[in-house]
């Protein structure tokens, strides 16, 4: 069994920091999803993360920083990048920025690109760990590549099994969806992955240019099939067909519901957990009710489309 330490255990932070300092990965909670973290300056430690996830090495990782000061050590910050950090950090927004030559982040983290993705998590556990370590943490979601993202420690154990390193357990993640990723190209923004920091809020800060890109090129991790359960997934369902587990929303009741009241934040926080429940149930297939596309719904629908893609 993998070793779990509660975040409230007085030794949790120091144990995580000492393991990371030795080059071992550690699973840490964040406000979005659980992350499989490694010292971003240690290429061998980062290689272990790729190995545990079964992740193609050309797919770069997000480096998690303690704040704008640490970000400035690793990336060139344009005035627009500074404004985004002031407005949205700490929180679920990752910025893809030009990488500084002086940056000590291992090339394996950026997969050889001349840009680096940086995020300052709002969760107190990674904040304390990064500050104590004094270096960024590279951390993808703590699940095997292409499977449903983990929003509890139990999801991590189920996905990584015996390969899971030390896990710091802080209960279910508040946001439940991975961070928004936006590339900052001078005074322009390109949205690479939708999330809870919505396109509307970002474009308001970039009057000179805002574009959305359906992944693949600039965010190589945005492959079409992603977040996938092991069973077939049908979208926009109103009722369950025989053998299906129906995940409802609003008026569509289902076996479980994303949100009875049609609340998108509640739906985002429950999405991955309910996909895990449906995947483990006796049903032979999964159906999901339609979720409106505005605001946070864009990020929820993005994950659902990828999960349903065969
Ligand atoms: O909420 C999150 O972002 C979580 C938690 C743990 O922080 N992390 C996460 O990481 O979702 P991951 O590895 O699952 O997703 C990272 C995404 C990938 O799609 C990758 O292609 C993209 O970030 N990415 C990383 N560096 C990039 C870069 N330099 N340019 C473009 N895309 C990049
Ligand atoms: Mg992931």
Automatic annotation (TrEMBL):
<feature type="binding site">
    <location>
        <position position="141"/>
    </location>
    <ligand>
        <name>ATP</name>
    </ligand>
</feature>
<keyword id="KW-0808">Transferase</keyword>
<dbReference type="InterPro" id="IPR006070">
    <property type="entry name" value="Sua5-like_dom"/>
</dbReference>
<feature type="domain" description="YrdC-like">
    <location>
        <begin position="10"/>
        <end position="197"/>
    </location>
</feature>
<dbReference type="GO" id="GO:0006450">
    <property type="term" value="P:regulation of translational fidelity"/>
</dbReference>
<dbReference type="GO" id="GO:0005524">
    <property type="term" value="F:ATP binding"/>
</dbReference>
<feature type="binding site">
    <location>
        <position position="64"/>
    </location>
    <ligand>
        <name>L-threonine</name>
    </ligand>
</feature>
<comment type="similarity">
    <text>Belongs to the SUA5 family.</text>
</comment>
<comment type="function">
    <text>Required for the formation of a threonylcarbamoyl group on adenosine at position 37 (t(6)A37) in tRNAs that read codons beginning with adenine.</text>
</comment>
<feature type="binding site">
    <location>
        <position position="227"/>
    </location>
    <ligand>
        <name>ATP</name>
    </ligand>
</feature>
<feature type="binding site">
    <location>
        <position position="179"/>
    </location>
    <ligand>
        <name>L-threonine</name>
    </ligand>
</feature>
<dbReference type="GO" id="GO:0003725">
    <property type="term" value="F:double-stranded RNA binding"/>
</dbReference>
<keyword id="KW-0548">Nucleotidyltransferase</keyword>
<feature type="binding site">
    <location>
        <position position="115"/>
    </location>
    <ligand>
        <name>ATP</name>
    </ligand>
</feature>
<dbReference type="InterPro" id="IPR010923">
    <property type="entry name" value="T(6)A37_SUA5"/>
</dbReference>
<keyword id="KW-0963">Cytoplasm</keyword>
<feature type="binding site">
    <location>
        <position position="59"/>
    </location>
    <ligand>
        <name>ATP</name>
    </ligand>
</feature>
<keyword id="KW-0547">Nucleotide-binding</keyword>
<feature type="binding site">
    <location>
        <position position="193"/>
    </location>
    <ligand>
        <name>ATP</name>
    </ligand>
</feature>
<dbReference type="Pfam" id="PF01300">
    <property type="entry name" value="Sua5_yciO_yrdC"/>
</dbReference>
<dbReference type="GO" id="GO:0005737">
    <property type="term" value="C:cytoplasm"/>
</dbReference>
<feature type="binding site">
    <location>
        <position position="55"/>
    </location>
    <ligand>
        <name>ATP</name>
    </ligand>
</feature>
<dbReference type="GO" id="GO:0000049">
    <property type="term" value="F:tRNA binding"/>
</dbReference>
<dbReference type="InterPro" id="IPR005145">
    <property type="entry name" value="Sua5_C"/>
</dbReference>
<feature type="binding site">
    <location>
        <position position="119"/>
    </location>
    <ligand>
        <name>L-threonine</name>
    </ligand>
</feature>
<dbReference type="GO" id="GO:0008033">
    <property type="term" value="P:tRNA processing"/>
</dbReference>
<protein>
    <recommendedName>
        <fullName>Threonylcarbamoyl-AMP synthase</fullName>
        <ecNumber>2.7.7.87</ecNumber>
    </recommendedName>
</protein>
<dbReference type="GO" id="GO:0061710">
    <property type="term" value="F:L-threonylcarbamoyladenylate synthase"/>
</dbReference>
<feature type="binding site">
    <location>
        <position position="32"/>
    </location>
    <ligand>
        <name>L-threonine</name>
    </ligand>
</feature>
<feature type="binding site">
    <location>
        <position position="149"/>
    </location>
    <ligand>
        <name>ATP</name>
    </ligand>
</feature>
<keyword id="KW-0819">tRNA processing</keyword>
<dbReference type="InterPro" id="IPR017945">
    <property type="entry name" value="DHBP_synth_RibB-like_a/b_dom"/>
</dbReference>
<dbReference type="InterPro" id="IPR050156">
    <property type="entry name" value="TC-AMP_synthase_SUA5"/>
</dbReference>
<feature type="binding site">
    <location>
        <position position="139"/>
    </location>
    <ligand>
        <name>L-threonine</name>
    </ligand>
</feature>
<dbReference type="Pfam" id="PF03481">
    <property type="entry name" value="Sua5_C"/>
</dbReference>
<dbReference type="InterPro" id="IPR038385">
    <property type="entry name" value="Sua5/YwlC_C"/>
</dbReference>
<keyword id="KW-0067">ATP-binding</keyword>
